[in-house]
């Protein structure tokens, strides 16, 4: 009889220990989920700040480019202010395209108000200059062509 009571007591203790272990595991999972959610919130906030900073920088660069284009247009008396001058060297052209990868007009070295025909002409001109057969294996030509 005492042996049976001891076995029952041992069984109760094992069950209690299993319950405590399950509770600890659930608490650890809840804590891990909370940490994961907090990490995601922090990453989202960091992404938002990064995107805001990039947008601000693009806006500032665009404003500077607009001022420079207006000054050039006013000084030269050019009527076609939508077209910017392409860099003369292939390396400078590729660097300018890679720097402006987020804005298609800047990749084409055009102002945002450029017409459809100007976009077509500039795209064709860049494709001809950056084509792998013409660029003589320049390391960034293929990436710039795909911009």
UniProtKB/TrEMBL annotation:
<dbReference type="InterPro" id="IPR036869">
    <property type="entry name" value="J_dom_sf"/>
</dbReference>
<protein>
    <recommendedName>
        <fullName>J domain-containing protein</fullName>
    </recommendedName>
</protein>
<feature type="region of interest" description="Disordered">
    <location>
        <begin position="1"/>
        <end position="79"/>
    </location>
</feature>
<dbReference type="Pfam" id="PF00226">
    <property type="entry name" value="DnaJ"/>
</dbReference>
<dbReference type="InterPro" id="IPR001623">
    <property type="entry name" value="DnaJ_domain"/>
</dbReference>
<feature type="domain" description="J">
    <location>
        <begin position="104"/>
        <end position="143"/>
    </location>
</feature>
<feature type="compositionally biased region" description="Basic and acidic residues">
    <location>
        <begin position="1"/>
        <end position="27"/>
    </location>
</feature>
<feature type="compositionally biased region" description="Low complexity">
    <location>
        <begin position="65"/>
        <end position="79"/>
    </location>
</feature>
């Amino acid at each position: 009889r005492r042996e049976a009571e001891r076995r029952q007591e041992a069984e109760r203790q094992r069950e209690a220990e299993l319950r405590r272990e399950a509770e600890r595991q659930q608490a650890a999972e809840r804590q891990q989920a909370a940490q994961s959610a907090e990490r995601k919130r922090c990453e989202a906030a960091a992404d938002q700040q990064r995107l805001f900073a990039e947008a601000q920088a693009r806006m500032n660069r665009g404003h500077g480019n607009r001022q420079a284009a207006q000054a050039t247009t006013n000084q030269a008396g050019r009527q076609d202010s939508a077209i910017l001058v392409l860099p003369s060297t292939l390396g400078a052209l590729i660097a300018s395209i890679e720097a402006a990868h987020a804005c298609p007009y800047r990749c084409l070295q055009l102002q945002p108000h450029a017409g459809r025909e100007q976009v077509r002409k500039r795209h064709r001109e860049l494709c001809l200059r950056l084509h792998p057969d013409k660029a003589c294996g320049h390391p960034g030509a293929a990436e710039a062509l795909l911009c």
